[in-house]
Write a structure and sequence with these properties.
Distance between the termini: 24 Å
Number of strands: 13
CATH topology: TIM Barrel
Order of helices and strands: HHHEEEHEEEHEHEHEHEEHEHEHH
Structural class: alpha/beta
Number of helices: 12
Length: about 325
């Protein structure tokens, strides 16, 4: 059934199909139909970052940028939902067209540019979901506004952390999107240590105020050299970061060379990033062991792909592009892990 629906959706521009799909999910959820289709959770669950996850399969940030579809998406069977990336102030993102399908490669290129309604709106949506009875795990992925200079980025992340802290189960620091100029420079050296140090200091203040702890995860790019992985891993350990999310989208294009839209600017996700992402997870795990858990994401389109990430050292996994190409049965298969 999904393959037929996919053919219809793929006749529409990608961004329009995206909004139509989410809107339809929300309507089905209100009718109680998604809950009936929710796969049985036969997983034993797992504890990561001090949080008890009902299963190891989560939704990656980017699909529900504003947190408007938390309950509906959760009813597909996810063990946790990550929303965002959200910025302190609303911003429109990059000009359209900014989302491209590459079906032959089971891939997507996006240059959305952190389009979102701002963190205050997102938190209103989280509040509404909780008030409606949602008890699932929510991660909030935060970034900086495009008009905030990279040298001033720390303050944007601190704003995001302060506001998200009482509403999230964990907070993700996105410093790896290729679609905000200069953002990826925050992954390295003194810039990374300065950012992480400031966030951990603020986390300690927030924990003292609220009397509970909210973990911080850091999301990195797949386009990392071994020496860069070593440096990032050490920074995570030195700053007692709670988790690593590996990886974001890639800027490489070798796997889609010659395909329609293959040369479009932006981050490439899906099948072409799968092996790259798994290798980055494996390399990070050699440094981090079990001291910093890893959430693996990138190119998961089957239960085997998810298991490969877990075997490489991930404790949890997230999907996004695979859901677009494979449909909800992907989640049903993966939750059995």
């Amino acid at each position: 059934m999904y393959k037929l629906l996919q053919k219809i959706l793929f006749l529409l521009p990608p961004e329009k199909a995206h909004h139509l799909s989410l809107g339809s999910l929300a309507k089905l959820d209100k009718l109680g139909l998604l809950k009936r289709l929710k796969p049985e959770n036969i997983s034993k669950g797992v504890e990561v970052m001090g949080i008890k996850f009902p299963n190891k399969i989560g939704l990656a940030a980017g699909l529900d940028k504003n947190g408007e579809y938390i309950q509906a998406l959760s009813n597909l069977g996810f063990g946790f939902i990550e929303i965002g990336t959200v910025t302190p102030r609303p911003q429109p993102g990059n000009d359209a067209p900014r989302l491209f399908r590459l079906p032959k490669a089971k891939a997507i290129i996006n240059r959305m540019g952190f389009n979102n309604e701002g963190i205050d709106y997102l938190l209103e949506c989280v509040y509404e979901a909780r008030e409606s009875g949602f008890k699932g795990i929510i991660g909030i992925n935060i970034g900086k506004n495009v008009d905030t200079a990279v040298k001033d980025a720390i303050e944007d992340y601190l704003i995001g952390l302060r506001k998200a802290y009482p509403h999230a189960d964990y907070i993700t620091i996105n410093i790896s999107s290729p679609n905000t100029p200069g953002l990826r420079t925050l992954q390295y050296g003194d810039e990374l240590n300065e950012l992480l140090s400031a966030l951990k200091a603020e986390q300690a203040k927030l924990m003292s105020f609220y009397k509970y702890y909210r973990p911080i995860a850091v999301k990195v790019a797949p386009d990392l050299e071994p020496v860069e992985i070593t440096g990032i891993a050490q920074a995570l350990l030195d700053n007692d970061i709670d988790a690593l999310i590996a990886t974001n989208t890639t800027i490489t294009r070798d796997a889609v060379k010659g395909l329609q839209y293959g040369n479009e600017a932006g981050g490439l996700s899906g099948e072409p990033v799968k092996t790259m992402s798994t290798e980055v997870i494996r390399r990070f795990h050699t440094h981090l062991k079990d001291r910093v858990p890893i959430i693996g994401v990138g190119g998961i389109a089957s239960a085997k792909d998810a298991q490969d990430k877990l075997d490489a050292g991930a404790s949890l996994v997230q999907v996004y592009t695979g859901l677009i190409y494979e449909g909800p049965t992907l989640i049903s298969e993966c939750v059995k892990l």
